[in-house]
Give the backbone structure.
Amino acid sequence: MSVIAILLSIAVAFLHAYILYLEMFAWEDKRTRKIFGTTEDFAKATKALAANQGLYNGFLSAGLFWGVFAGKTDVLVFFLLCICVAAAYGARTVSKKILFTQGLPAALALFAVVFLN
């Protein structure tokens, strides 16, 4: 696997680990509310939902780390495609920003994994 593919995949894995942290442990923090554009009341009301989303982001992160450290290109392709699909859905239903903050990094990593090996 190319160094570029590895580095991009690790970057996406860390991004999703960070999203896990924000959604599971810092959802009600002022900084997190600013990132996600939510109010204090909304954050309190949706804390459990956000934690569930965070857990899923953790699974994506773990899958990417597994793929990188086990040298499994097929695993990386699967998890990066999952992120691309989730980002497209999120862009359509929540915010177009998701396409750029999550989808673009995953698409670049996917390109590198598939075409730079």
